[in-house]
Amino acid sequence: MKLVSKTDKPENIKTELLIVGCFEKEKFTNPLIDKKLKGAISKAFKEKKFEGEFKQVYSVSSLGNANFEKLLLVGLGKKKEFDLEKLRKISGFTAKIARDNKLLKYTSNLLSVDVKYSSDEKSQAFAEGTVMGLYQFLKYKTQEKNKINEIKEVTVLTNDVNKTNKGLKKGELLGNTTNYVRDLVNTPACEATPTYLANEAKKWAKKEGFKITVFGKKELEKKKMNALLGVGKGSSQESKLVVMETNPKAKKKIALVGKGITFDSGGLDIKPASYMLDMKSDMAGSAAVLGAIIIATKLKLPINVIGVMALAENMLGASAQRPGDIITAYNKKTIEIINTDAEGRLVLADAVAYAEEKKPDAIIDIATLTGAVVVALGYSAAGLISNNDKLKNALKKSGERTFERVWELPLWDEFRDAIKGELADVRNLGKGKGFEGGTIIGGTFIESFIDKTPWAHLDIGGTGWFVEDQDYISKGGTGYGVRLFTDLLENWK
Ligand code: BES
Ligand code: ZN
Ligand code: ZN
User: Fold this and answer.
1) Which of 246, 323, 334, 346 allows an S-S link to 227, with CB 3.0 to 4.6 Å?
2) Which residues are bridge partners to 384 per DSSP?
3) DSSP designation for 488
4) Could you tell me the CATH number of the domain that includes residue 127?
5) Which ligand is nearest the CA of 467, by number?
6) Ligand 1: centre distance to CA 376 (Å)
């Protein structure tokens, strides 16, 4: 899909569909359009058929009286509540209406909304909402393709083409990369194996020119990364650790570490069928890390980013890891496996310890770690657990700006006590029934593999995968993390 900007008057534009926004309790501000439509708009306002409520729509056909064939009036809600997230939402919402109406092209006047943001901010949000809103996962559809419509071109009206193009370009990059990450998450586990994901990363490394090393079974055995290897023991798929790096010479250095379980059956502590169905998405964290590395490279961000993907498939088999097993992790700590379904924290234990050796300013891990985070925060925010205020605050700010929000949970000693091992150093499940404060326990376990570096853990069990459509993000993989990390890396001091 192509996004183009144009300086033109909306009332003169030649297009099949013209989208115009209107705030609640405000008059329609383009009398020329109303005149061309023979007063149809003022009539709709008078008769209270349209009042500008957020996402309310009213469409009028021009019947040959204007260059545009149809006008779609869309409500923007209360002006003082309008922000960039609302613009993303309304951009995605209107794009989907155009697509559902079988259009291939349309024109939007949404950037003319008179709000406190700059042209490039508005156009970036418009592009993000439009590109993400139009996402469809069609890779496996072979039949009834004629029923699927795809928008080919969106024209946006502006009086500041330069700034608008800058914002559109950035928004497109963020949107398209997020959509690529969503593709990876939506691709079934029979195709998206650890090797597949490692090869995807290699493809990007070659194309964009960032550094990459892929450790396979042999290298991982040599490095004694037994926590990562243990999780993959029941699978016929080889576990991998992918290490990517941008800008090796830059002073500032951030490590991003992603959970990459390409399928989580639970292992011998097998999941019930309904809990297992969506578990191809258990690699969403590592996919987001790849996305962030791609963007950091393309935007030439002046920061050294280390991206680590900890890839394994958690299956059952004759060689699978057992409950009660004790393993020695990469950093020599011993772990009692209480439950084989708490596997994300195991692969991350080795991956964060490895990342710390690179001496970054901060380590952020991102993981579909627990179902408990959905109980705590729903699908609205990732659980944030961190040992460092500066890093926490930076993530919170980036979360607000991108609307990939985070919400802090505590890191307290009682949780550290709960993961103390009986026979080994630590256990991978809390004491008690094992599930109380599950998200905090998971984060605290990962913390125990960090020596002294500022660290933050993002539990995206709720935000990485949607079970229902939400505004500009349809159900399935969300690509959460790509925009959050980009904003964080751009603003890291
Ligand atoms: N991948 C799951 C967590 C998950 C569940 C993410 C549902 C998104 C949606 C993780 O590996 C897991 O199985 N966690 C267990 C932890 C428990 C065994 C301590 C859970 O959440 O039940
Ligand atoms: Zn699990
Ligand atoms: Zn998992």
Assistant:
1) 346
2) 408, 458
3) H
4) 3.40.220.10
5) 1
6) 13
Residue with structure tokens 């960090």?
A: 450
- Please write the tens of the pLDDT for every residue from 388-416: 999 999 999 999 999 999 999 999 999 99
For ligand 1, atom 3, name the residue with the nearest CA.
370
Task: List, for residues 351-369, the tens digit of each pLDDT value.
Answer: 999 999 999 999 999 999 9
CA 373 to chain centre: 16
Cβ pair 309, 258 in contact under 8 A: yes
Determine whether the shortest distance from the Cβ of 462 to ligand 1 is under 6 A: no
Ligand 2 center to residue 264 CA distance, Å?
A: 5
pLDDT digits (tens, 9 = 90+) for 235-288: 999 999 999 999 999 999 999 999 999 999 999 999 999 999 999 999 999 999
| Cα torsion 213, 217, 219, 221: sign | positive
| Ion ligand 2, residue ranges at CB < 5 A | 264, 341, 343
Tally of domains within the chain: 2
The arithmetic mean of pLDDT across residues 182-195, rounded, is 98
Is residue 264 within 6 Å of ligand 1 at its C-beta?
A: yes
Instruction: Tell me which residue range forms the domain holding 347.
Output: 179-491
345 is known as an active-site residue: yes
Same domain, residue pair 231 and 129: no
